[in-house]
Structures are given as structure tokens and as C-alpha cells.
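Supplementary Methods, section 5.1.

A reviewer requested that the exact input to the structure prediction be made available. We therefore reproduce it here, unchanged from the version used in the analyses.
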Amino acid sequence: MVRHRGIIAAALAGTALVAVIAGLLLTSGGPGAPARPPAPGRPVPRALPARHQPPPLPASTTLATMLVTAPRFATPGGKRTGVVATSWYDRVSVLPMIATRPGWVEVRLPQRPNGSTAWVPAGDVTLGSTPYLIVIDLRTLHLSLYDRGRRVFSAPAGVGTLDDPTPAGDYFVAFDEPPPETGVGYGPFVLVTSAHSPAISDWEGSGDAVIGIHGPLGMDAAIGTKGARISHGCVRLHLSALEKLSQVPPGTPIDVIG
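The structure derived from this sequence is encoded cell-by-cell as follows.
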């Protein structure tokens, strides 16, 4: 779990890249020879449609840092639905930008419900970028880090159990913070994410159940080399793997797939 200024965040607790190439069914009579006709009564074989490989991962993601508490809209210039604050849990709001329109940007939000987005005036943010992407695969029980579209490492992970699952979806690193306790296996820092437990709404009276990425909390053996379903939704890593995420800045996208 993650405690932030008295708030315990139930831990953390998204898109698999699968390339499939379909072959062509050809019947040939040898080099230079015309195609041999099919046997009588048999259907004429047809070439299967080619399936294209998925596009390469983006080299970077544009980030929008909130300059002021901005009005929030469901569509550009549409009905106002609230505000997007300059901070979340006293940390500056650095949000992935997912679309633009003249004078507007669409950003992901850290609040419930999971996957929330909003349009805000472009003048209320300043833009930056991150080259990183974190992918958490709930099928293979591994976390991978990508840098400019290239995978730089992959490690086994402890994820949520079936009763308290790690939620699949598109999230981001909201901020990092020191561990709530030392000497118990959180590691040197915790990455607090924009994901929230789908099974726990109020962890130990904290008012929420925010998901984090942190150390193994004594479950190194269970995580092993293959990963395990051992948490209340968090993602637990061996300390050597967690330390490789130390350069990942707030706003970095997290895809949880499975």
C-alpha cells in the first residue's frame, strides 16, 4: 500500500503488441510454370488477406502541465463539467495529452473513474514531453519500460489477485514519493499512478484506493522470474527492477493490458 500524507493508496495496482503475418496459399507447378488448377470438386484456394503489423510505438508523449485551475469540458467549447486543478495530492498536475483542437487540449485525469479525460483551454497549460512508456501485461505478469518506442527492460511483477485485480486500461504516472515506511520492502520510492482499485473504494479509511508501483514488500520469492498475483492491485517489483524506473517522470503513460 502507499500512504501519501496520511492517505494510504492501495496499490496499483494499457496494449499488448502482437504481430501476425498471414501467409499466402499458392499452388505452383514449379519455377516459371503457371499455377496448377485445383483438383475437380475442390474449392479454389484464395489468398488470405494480409494483416499488417501494428504501428510502431510513439517516440514520445506530449505532456500538459496545469498552470492554473482550469475549467473542464466534455468537448471543446461545450458544456462545462467542472475544473482540472493545478495539483493532485499536493503534487503538480502533469497530464498526458491525447488530442488537440485549435485552442484546446484533451488530457487524461488522475481522479476516479479510471480512464477519465477532459478538454481544457490550451492557454491554461504548458507543454512538455516524455520518451517513456510503461506496459504492464497482466497475462505474462511482467512490466516493461519503453524509451522512444524501444523496450529497454522487462521484469516479472507481482500484480493484483483475481479478487482485488490490477485494473486494465490507460493510465499514467501521477508523481513519485518517498516510501511510507522504510525497511519493509517498498524500495527507495513509490510511483503513484492515476489508476484506482476497481474492488476497493476506501482503503483503511483513506477515502480512496490509489494504485502504486513499488518494491516487493517481502514477496521476492513469490514474484520470482515469472511474476505472481499477490497484491491488492499494486504492482510489486524486485528492487533492482524498480530502480530502473527512477528516471521516469510524472505524466509518463502506463498501459495495463490483459
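The chain is about 5% helix and 40% strand. These observations are discussed further in the main text.
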